[in-house]
Amino acid sequence: GTTDRYDAVKKMMPYAKGVSFKCWEFVDGKETKIDMARMMKIVQEAGFKGWVGIEYEGEKMAEYDGVAAARKYLDGVA
Q: How do residues 21-52 score in pLDDT, each as one tens digit?
């Protein structure tokens, strides 16, 4: 069967040395492929206190703008 990405992250969090927020596209300030609020809740509930790296993989905006949009979003949910 398919692996649930949220369940997989939950299982890996006790071993995580770092967290990376990979994003592709934002609509109304939210990432369209992943429920990042749900994902960040998993990260926070695991007690992770480290840095969250941001990788913008989309093509609709410049990389810098994509990273800035991701940071703005994470500041709102973290």
A: 888 888 888 888 888 889 999 999 999 988 88
b vs e for 33-58, b when ≥16 Cβ sit within 10 Å of the residue's Cβ? eeebeebbebbeebebeeeeebebeb
Structural tokens at position 6: 């949220």
The confidence band for 1, taking pLDDT boundaries of 50, 70 and 90, is low
What is the structure's pLDDT at 8? Answer: 92
Going from the C-alpha of 62 to that of each of 12, 46, 67, the distances in angstroms are 31, 32, 9
* Residue with the two structure tokens 């709102």: 76
| Cα dihedral 11→25→78→49 (10° resolution) | 50
Of 16, 17, 36, residue with least CA distance to 26: 36
46 touches 12 (CB < 8 A) = no
